[in-house]
Amino acid sequence: MSATALAPRHGAARWWSSYRHMLRFELASQRQWLPFMLIIQILLSAGMAVLYGFYLPAIPPQLAAFIVTGTPALALIPIGLMSLPNVIVNRRIAGNYDFVRSLPVPRGTEVAATATVFTLLAIPGMVIALALASWRYGITLHISPLIVPAVLLTSLMATSVGAALGHGISNPMLINLVGNLLTFAVLLFTPVVFPPAQYPAWLVHLHEGLPFYNMAVVLRDALSTGLVAHVGRSYAILLGWTAAGLGVSSWIVSRRG
């Protein structure tokens, strides 16, 4: 019996088999860049972990706890919103974007495989940033088992939205502008490492429906006690944004195919 006859042709089995093939393809195509991106991710995350200590030499314990438990979100966001869209745009420039779309696999498997690789790429920098921030500010973490779904969901959300941006915007300059603008807005105007009470009420209400504040909420809940509430709502919002990002990416790829 031939290998073709053994390959699943329909349903979930075909999707899973195609996903595994696309995951191997993604790792192989990015193998020369993955170590470099990993190093950059670690250095960037470590830098953000100690940055606020230079601006705020006397940090109250509660604020220090917010900074430490918000650091993982700051580490996960750039890899999904900046690195991933640029990789997709660079495929267009290199001329292999259409080749990837021509492969005989379900369109959603390409998006899922790319999101998986960049989710895994983001985790080492997040762990190092969290350990460094905890040491730098003298905060003892209370890590619960919820850290696993919190990290996976927040990282997948960032990569799914980044994939939607990369597939939806073909201009390299525009994708760089959007990625930098989002990162700038998150660093300065989103209650990720500072308590929401320090922001205007209208801005907090706006961020309650956006993903970045809710990323910090679920991660903070998994790393501490008593700092956040309404965590279930944040999980639901993140699931919605993740589904939207993956759905938009798959729809764009299918429509252009």
Please give a structural write-up.
The chain is an all-alpha fold and 257 residues long. It has one domain. The protein has 11 helices and no strands. The protein is globular. The N terminus is likely disordered.
Key words describing this protein structure:
257 residues, mainly alpha, 11 helices, 79% helix, globular, disordered N terminus
Could you outline the blueprint of secondary structure elements for this entry?
Layout: H1 3-6, H2 11-29, H3 34-55, H4 61-94, H5 97-102, H6 107-137, H7 147-168, H8 172-189, H9 201-207, H10 211-223, H11 231-256
Helix pairs in contact: 2-6, 3-4, 3-6, 4-6, 4-7, 4-8, 4-10, 6-7, 6-11, 7-10, 7-11, 10-11
Brief summary:
The chain has 257 residues and is mainly alpha-helical.
Beta content:
under 5%
| Biggest pleated sheet | none
Low-confidence stretches: 1-7
Fraction of residues in H or I helices = over 70%
Rg (CA only): 19 Å
Q: How many discrete structural domains?
A: 1
Order of helices and strands: HHHHHHHHHHH
Structural class designation: mainly alpha
